[in-house]
Amino acid sequence: MACAPRGESRVDPRRYRAFFLWAGVRAPDWLGEAEEVYVLMGEVRAGDPDGIVPLRPQPPRAVRPRLWLTLRAERLDWGEGVYARLLGELRRWEALGNRVTGLQIDFDAATRGLEGYAAFLAALRRRLPPRWRLSITGLLDWSAHGTVALGSLAGVVDEMVVQTYQGRATIPRYADYLARMERVPVPWKVGLVEGGEWREPAGLAAHPLFRGYVVFLVDRAGQQ
Q: What pLDDT is recorded for position 3?
């Protein structure tokens, strides 16, 4: 489990062990020593339900980190071509010797749309070979208003990474939202933005379903 240093006010990625790598963000030299990396592979865009727009020219080649293939989605009515391409990419990443943990879906479902999203995820889980786990990103607002729909995620997704930031800034009052995470019935991690403000709320580390932190890396002046 990647734990946050106590009393930290700004997120220093070198003090964590799990990371999210956006397309276009240069991987730091030390990323190869991470324990776990979520890599954005492509997008299903609003104008095309039948294809994936690739966001990196080649699959990663990682020896040490466990990898998650992340797909960003702007719509959920996928054609068969999306599923075929997605499963093919997972196999290709694995064939290169990567330790592929599974698939992560990044979809900003509105709270009122969580029930439909849960149904989509259940159907996706049935298509995914059992050796790969299923992860999703989540919004802080879900913990406050999505109680009923979140219950249907149990047994479908293996984890949720809750994003505590917008853009490059930490969302105010994140501690109030995280205090409601007992409503989420699946293991969850807290997503932090590199350089963002952060102090670990009291009692967070003791939550039975809390699984640590994922730092979303960004390009910053003077950094690589």
A: 58
